DNA sequence: ACAGGCGAAACTTTATACAATCTTCGCCCG
DNA sequence: CGGGCGAAGATTGTATAAAGTTTCGCCTGT
């Protein structure tokens, strides 16, 4: 019922064309194929998806609202470039919300959900074995999203989708080493706690998981312009 | 800086025309001049604001993303009608986020902010004395938003804006008595705690404030269709 | 040789026209 | 007299074209 209310406005996998565009671009950003600062021209995207600029524009506006695209007036849309301050805010929000989400997930636990979680872990392991960094990044985020879906809390799910997308950009921009996404083992531990219906352990593991991800980042406050230049030179 | 990143995508008070439409409609919904279920025709709104359907459409899509408008394919946009389940989710989320927000607000406390808070309390009292229910409803929500702005946490602010807007609809739909919005006294108490920089008291007061608001609601699960009929008859 | 300004091209923004879909009202049939 | 079918009207979804803004290159003047 709650889901039905949002179904049309926010359809996650609707078959209409604007959703296809949105998801295509989102995937490209989340898999780090589109780097922060990249210009997303309307014609360009429209040609790729065989759609008119009207639809592309709608999709880009949605992505802007989700915070992974910036629309600058009369200049166009660009892949967002979160600042270190943004990064800290995102992770703080995740530390606040995700422990509560796992709580709810445990309340909703069922064999079917455990299967899905287990299957996801398998996918993650496989991608990492393959050395497929893109798939790893994507699956790593999808794990958290899966737990949120499991919680059945549509508002938390919506918030978390936004936070995950931004996190992906943040990790790309600020990670220290070439860490292979965030540890698959952490995810396995969280699933184990969910299976045991041990809320306290699940919350604690989720929290430390998030802390470790953030700890691997290099979040210094640069003069924003310096950063911009440095990145451009690097790319 | 963080704010600048979101400025264009999410501009709260930008001078462009689509923002004017969005804020006009939002205000109408928050002040309970537009009731849940009301159809928002594109031509209709466009004529009011002297804008073409393109701009109206953009504004409505943003409102849909904020959760206060539902867009049904090929049918149009309607003021959202949150279910009791939605209502419980919204208030749970607020209970999670707002105590943390007041914490941050206390960290950012300054004479200027205290003045703004005090001024807002005065406005609220005045509106209530005038018996201006519309202004009361609006100001009551704006208080929470003000605290969120004070916290300087742009992500929490964005989330809370959404939650406040939905809360307004929920209160309209499900309140038991004609309670004069949520108690101004609570707000005064919260401001007092902020002034004293007493985080524990501020969190506790915010929490009990939210609990009291929700306690005044009548959140039974009706057959959705029954509810719809009852409302229509009432209106 | 270099700085400043002018102009054209490319892009976004906005408006309008067209197509598809749904709703509604009337009519016919049972 | 009630229910279902069908066509007209209205509304949304999509595309295209006109308008405004920015940006970049080039030219001129010093």
> Which band does the percent of strand residues of chain A land in?
under 5%
Largest interface: A-B, 39 and 39 residues
In CATH, the architecture of the largest domain in chain A is: Up-down Bundle
Distance between the termini of chain A: 47 Å
CATH topology of the largest domain in chain A: Four Helix Bundle (Hemerythrin (Met), subunit A)
Mean pLDDT of chain A: 87
Number of domains of chain A: 2
Radius of gyration of chain A: 18 Å
Strand order of the largest sheet of chain A: 1-3-2
Q: Name the shape of chain A in a single word.
A: globular
Question: Looking at the chains present, what oligomeric state does this protein adopt?
Answer: homodimer
Q: What is the N-to-C order of secondary-structure elements of chain A (H for helix, E for strand)?
A: HHEHHEEHHHHHHH
Number of helices of chain A: 11
Percent helix of chain A? over 70%
Largest beta-sheet details of chain A: 3 strands, antiparallel
**Could you say which structural class the secondary elements and strand pairing of chain A correspond to?**
mainly alpha
For the record, the CATH class of the largest domain in chain A is: Mainly Alpha
Counting DSSP E segments of at least 2 residues, the number of strands of chain A comes to 3
List the keywords.
235 residues, 4% strand, 11 helices, 2 domains, three-stranded antiparallel sheet, homodimer, Four Helix Bundle (Hemerythrin (Met), subunit A), DNA-binding, mainly alpha, Arc Repressor Mutant, subunit A
Can you walk me through this structure?
- Two copies of one chain form a homodimer.
- With 235 residues, chain A is mainly alpha-helical.
- The first copy, chain A, has eleven helices and three strands, in the order H-H-E-H-H-E-E-H-H-H-H-H-H-H.
- Chain A has helices at residues 2-10, 17-30, 42-49, 53-66, 84-107, 111-130, 133-151, 154-174, 184-195, 199-215, 224-234; strands spanning 39-40, 69-72, 76-79.
- In chain A, 41% of the residues are buried.
- The model of chain A is unreliable at 1-14 (pLDDT under 50).
- The A-B interface holds A 1-2, 5-6, 8-10, 16, 58, 61-62, 64-65, 67, 69-73, 80-83, 85-86, 89-90, 92-93, 96-97, 100, 153-156, 159, 163, 224 and B 1-2, 5-6, 8-10, 16, 58, 61-62, 64-65, 67, 69-73, 80-83, 85-86, 89-90, 92-93, 96-97, 100, 153-156, 159, 163, 224.
- Chain A binds a DNA duplex (30 and 30 nucleotides) through residues 17, 41-43, 51-55, 57, 73-76.
């Amino acid at each position: 019922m709650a889901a039905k209310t949002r179904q049309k406005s926010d359809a996650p996998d609707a078959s209409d064309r604007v959703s296809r565009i949105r998801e295509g671009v989102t995937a490209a950003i989340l898999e780090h194929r589109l780097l922060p600062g990249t210009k997303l021209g309307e014609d360009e995207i429209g040609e790729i998806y065989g759609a008119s600029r009207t639809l592309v524009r709608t999709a880009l506006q949605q992505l802007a609202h989700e915070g992974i695209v910036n629309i600058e007036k009369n200049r166009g849309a660009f892949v967002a470039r979160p600042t270190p301050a943004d990064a800290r805010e995102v992770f703080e929000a995740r530390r606040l919300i995700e422990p509560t989400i796992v709580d709810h997930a445990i309340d909703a636990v069922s064999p079917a959900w455990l299967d899905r979680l287990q299957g996801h872990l398998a996918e993650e392991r496989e991608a990492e074995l393959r050395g497929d960094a893109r798939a790893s990044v994507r699956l790593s985020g999808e794990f958290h999203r899966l737990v949120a879906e499991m919680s059945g809390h549509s508002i938390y799910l919506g918030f978390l989708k936004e936070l995950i997308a931004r996190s992906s950009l943040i990790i790309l921009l600020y990670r220290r080493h070439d860490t292979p996404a965030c540890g698959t083992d952490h995810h396995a531990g969280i699933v184990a706690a969910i299976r045991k219906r041990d809320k306290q352990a699940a919350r604690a593991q989720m929290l430390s998981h998030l802390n470790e991800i953030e700890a691997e980042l290099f979040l210094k406050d640069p003069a924003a312009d310096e950063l911009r230049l440095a990145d451009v030179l690097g790319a």
